[in-house]
Design a protein that fits this description.
Distance between the termini of chain B: 54 Å
Number of helices of chain B: 7
CATH superfamily of the largest domain in chain A: Cytochrome c-like domain
Strand content of chain A: under 5%
Helix content of chain B: 10-25%
Number of strands of chain B: 26
Number of strands of chain A: 4
CATH class of the largest domain in chain A: Mainly Alpha
Number of domains of chain A: 3
Largest interface: A-B, 105 and 128 residues
CATH architecture of the largest domain in chain B: Alpha-Beta Complex
Strand order of the largest sheet of chain B: 5-4-13-8-9
Strand content of chain B: 25-35%
Shape of chain B: globular
CATH superfamily of the largest domain in chain B: Oxidoreductase, molybdopterin-binding domain
CATH class of the largest domain in chain B: Alpha Beta
CATH architecture of the largest domain in chain A: Orthogonal Bundle
Strand order of the largest sheet of chain A: 1-2
CATH topology of the largest domain in chain A: Cytochrome Bc1 Complex, Chain D, domain 2
Number of helices of chain A: 14
Structural class of chain A: mainly alpha
Radius of gyration of chain B: 24 Å
Oligomer: heterodimer
Radius of gyration of chain A: 27 Å
Order of helices and strands of chain A: HHEHHHHEEEHHHHHHHH
Structural class of chain B: mainly beta
């Protein structure tokens, strides 16, 4: 058998035995594209279906999940899954679906447990997707199901039972019955269709509409070019353009171009600011201690911090690792640190 | 470098003009002075002044290798509503419908919806994998896909949540925000049916799972009937490669179906015999009814229309002849008729459909020959498609669906024209 045919055979073995006639029509555009290897398919095939198909080998309990949750999820979803800002609420909401303000959580709304695993695995933590191990993902799934009273605390979720867990709201989904809301007789009225006109709401009274001014590009154009060049030089070898991409790791939690706190404090004007010095942001105790110890952010201190956040701050306050809330573990490449600092210097300027 | 503003610089588009117009506190005589474009300066009885651009050289052919709109149109941009979402990366912005003509949306102002930011994908490294219940799993590079027969077709793409903030009451005062989660471009790509036939789909297959390569790994289930009907795997829009924010280098086109299914940065299609019940088709994009139950797989975008001028961004500035125009569309077929009412839905007049009228595509309409007498009025439009479906009033929709379904609001929109020509978004009983 040729290497090529072996490849085909391996790929066919991967498809379902019941996947229909193997004497299916020949390809019309033979030679366009190739057969992926079993390993290639496996590396991308992360989805899990309600019946458990696709669930990887692994297991996790609520207790294990809680530890992961507090480090990786609580900063956005809240310590008890209560959500924060407009981040989704994960827990509670039972019996609210008919209310004026329904709360659609995993427990009150989601029809399938598999969706919890599938979604966490592919998309969470926000901005650091596909970083969790399968066991961590099972553990988080178990924790969220336990907190929503779906499973017991000591129940281990595994590849064998994820397709069997019943969700409380599963029966309340039904197929789309549209079209609906059609006029009687099915035809549109053309004359004397109603008696009176009564206004019951006005958008202008609410006044929540953003301004539609035409000056959105003015600010960007007005930045003097000389000043920009100077900033780039000051950042030494870092490339601010490359740094902007590195900042993608940060922007899930930090705003840099305005003094707005998100999950993390605003980085606007961070250079020259005392650590823990953003007004109105609730820092962890250790972070406050770092500030009290007199640490000020500049290119050097930021480089140390961004390389090993907890270790660096720990060094300032005489601990091995500081107990701070930032979940980010640090940048591995020195080049990334330099580029990021170059970008931050530009973008954070007040 | 900062550009010196010459006295001929426009004031940045209709939005600002609207503000000035509103601030002027006008009636009667002032109306005539505030046009959408400022009148040319006149030099009194001597005649029209000859402006600088008529005397001096303009820009060279090398000044703009990739052109942008005139700087006088710099206000025509996508805008977002900051309070709507937790972050700017998992968020949405809106197409400036008030500033558009015809039925095609320019690429740079097609609304964006991302769940983990717009991925920056290298087309050389990008792959499309097809596997699951197929005879031959396949892996394509972009170069491979460009060797296959392709088609070009116009389709609208509407987010299921377009108008979602308007369920309870009139909330946002601008057509950009009430209806701007829509765009319409010409897509070029390979029919999905062709790719599935190449892979040899099992006769037992009922669903596809389509997945994006962004950091949200966006995934949805698509029924096999739709996949084999008119779906496309597109790499170009309006003649050029897809914009990054629209899924460069590859996106799924699912004509007439809600935008969330048009997976961007498309990297994987798995064929199966059951749906996947992904987060975006269970937790989200299901429609909660007043009895606490929820509709699922609400794919089709029902027939809908809106008047895009006048609208809050385009107030009336003159009595007498004025243009009434808008857009209509249906995810179930072709727009057959659009009616316009000037008295809050009591009486209706058929509008003129302009330009090509194509299935699952935006259709431009006009009410010709209208003259404004300066009296306040309530303006509405109502579209009917070739299945006979009639766009409903919000009262009819609420009667069936309540106010918590978020998605699929295709109700008739009312614009109140005040006696000063301002336009406001109102809700009628």
């Amino acid at each position: 058998m040729s290497v090529w045919l072996k490849g085909i055979a391996a790929a066919l073995a991967l498809t379902f035995v019941a996947s229909g006639p193997l004497d299916a029509a020949e390809r019309k555009y033979e030679g366009v594209g190739r057969t992926p290897t079993a390993e290639e398919i496996k590396s991308w095939d992360i989805d899990v279906r309600p019946d458990g198909q696709g669930a990887p080998v692994g297991h996790g309990t609520a207790g294990e999940g809680e530890r992961v949750y507090l480090v990786k999820c609580a900063s956005c979803h809240g310590e008890f899954g209560e959500g924060g800002g407009r981040y989704p609420v994960l827990i509670g909401g039972h019996g609210t679906l008919k209310d004026m303000r329904p709360e659609k959580t995993i427990g009150s709304y989601w029809p399938y447990a598999s969706t919890v695993f599938d979604y966490i695995k592919r998309a969470m933590p926000f901005g650091d997707a596909q970083s969790l191990t399968d066991d961590e993902t099972y553990a988080l799934t178990a924790y969220l199901l336990f907190m929503n009273d779906v499973i017991e605390e000591d129940f281990a979720v595994t590849q064998d039972n994820i397709g069997t867990i019943e969700m409380p709201n599963q029966a309340n989904f039904f197929m789309d019955p549209r079209p609906d809301a059609q006029p009687e007789g099915g035809t549109a009225c053309m004359k004397d269709c109603k008696d009176k006109i009564e206004v019951i709401g006005r958008a202008r009274v609410l006044d929540v509409t953003p301004e539609t001014g035409g000056d959105t590009t003015e600010g960007a154009e007005a930045a003097p070019a000389e000043e920009k060049t100077e900033q780039v030089a000051a950042a030494e070898t870092g490339d601010p353009v490359a740094g902007r991409s590195v900042f993608n790791k940060c922007k899930g939690c930090h705003v840099i171009d305005s003094p707005k706190n998100r999950v993390g404090p605003s980085l606007h004007g961070v250079f020259g600011r005392a650590a823990g010095g953003v007004d109105g942001f609730r820092y962890s105790k250790d972070f406050q201690k770092v500030g009290d110890a007199g640490l000020v952010w500049d290119a050097a201190t930021l480089a140390g911090f961004l390389t090993d956040p907890k270790g660096y701050l720990g060094g300032v306050i005489g601990k091995e690792k500081a107990n701070t809330r930032m979940a980010f573990g640090g940048l591995r490449k020195e080049e990334d640190v330099r580029d990021l600092i170059a970008y931050m210097k530009e973008a954070s300027a007040e | 470098m900062a550009k010196k503003k010459s006295n001929t610089t426009g004031d940045g588009g209709p939005g600002l003009q609207r503000r000035q117009f509103l601030q002027a506190g006008l009636a009667g005589s002032a109306l005539a002075a505030a046009g959408t474009f400022s009148a040319p300066k006149t030099a009194g009885a001597a005649g029209l002044e000859i402006p600088d651009w008529s005397r001096q050289l303009g820009a060279s052919v090398d000044d703009a290798p990739y052109g942008k709109p005139s700087r006088h149109e710099s206000g025509v941009v996508r805008r977002s509503v900051e309070w709507l979402t937790a972050t700017r990366e998992s968020s949405i912005n809106f197409t400036p419908l008030y500033a558009l003509d015809g039925f095609v949306t320019p690429n740079g102002i097609c609304f964006e919806r991302h769940h983990g930011g717009a991925a920056d994908v290298d087309p050389v490294e990008h792959r499309l994998m097809i596997h699951g219940m197929v005879d031959r799993p396949l892996l394509f590079t972009m170069e491979d896909l460009l060797r296959l027969p392709r088609v070009s077709k116009f389709f609208f793409l509407e987010c299921a949540a377009n108008g979602g903030m308007e369920w309870r009451n009139a909330q946002l005062n601008g057509v950009q925000f009430t209806h701007g989660m829509i765009h319409c471009v010409q897509y070029t790509g390979v029919p999905l049916k062709l790719l599935l036939e190449e892979a040899g789909v099992s006769t037992k297959a009922k669903w596809l799972m389509v997945e994006g390569g962004d950091s949200a790994g966006m995934n949805r289930s698509v029924p096999i009937e739709k996949a084999l009907d008119d779906c496309m795997v597109a790499f170009a829009m309006n003649g050029e490669k897809l914009r990054a924010e629209q899924g460069y280098p590859l996106r799924l086109v699912v004509p007439g179906f809600e935008g969330n299914m048009w997976v961007k940065w498309l990297r994987r299609i798995e064929v199966g015999d059951e749906s996947w019940q992904a987060r975006e088709e269970t937790s989200k994009y299901t429609d909660l009814m007043p009895d606490g139950r929820a509709r699922r797989f609400t794919w089709e975008m029902d027939c809908k229309s809106v008047i895009t001028s006048p609208c809050p961004e385009n107030p009336l500035t003159q009595k007498g002849p004025n243009v009434i125009t808008g857009l209509a569309w249906s995810g179930r077929g072709t727009v057959k008729r659009v009616d316009v009412s000037l008295d809050g839905g009591k009486n209706w007049t058929e509008a003129r459909l302009d330009g090509p009228v194509m299935p699952k595509c935006l259709t431009r309409f006009y009410l010709d020959g209208w003259e404004w007498d300066g009296n306040p009025l309530y303006m509405q439009s109502r579209a009917i498609d070739d299945t006979g479906y009639v766009q409903p009033q919000m009262t009819a929709l609420q009667k069936v669906r309540g106010v918590n379904s978020i998605y699929h609001n295709n109700a008739i929109q009312t614009w109140h024209i005040t006696k000063t020509g301002e336009v406001e978004n109102v809700r009628l009983a």
